[in-house]
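Deliverable D5.2: sample structural annotation.
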Amino acid sequence: AGHSSQALDDALPQFTSYALRHFHDEEALMNTLVGEDTFVRIHIAQNAEFFSKIRQLSADRQAHTDSDTAQALVRYLHNWLFQHIATTDAVLSNKLLEQYPLLATR
């Protein structure tokens, strides 16, 4: 149990820290898009939901085993990968490339 607990102690703050940097950079890019206010609002709301879920998992650790928390985290990140990154982030990429075609050459 000690290893699982330490792994979660390390992983949850790392996810939060990485996501903060990534979402900040992503938001800066989104704010350059012209005519995409609705998309940007939805995307930012999805990012906020990510933080809410990670905070919830952290706060709920006392009520669940480390194994249950780790499984919930892996499930959530798996869903995030396929539901957000593969869809919303892909749309963002396409919108950025449409408005800034030179990005494709980098």
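Annotation notes: Helices lie at 2-30, 37-59, 66-99. The two ends are 46 Å apart (CA to CA).
The annotation will be released with the project's public dataset once the embargo ends.
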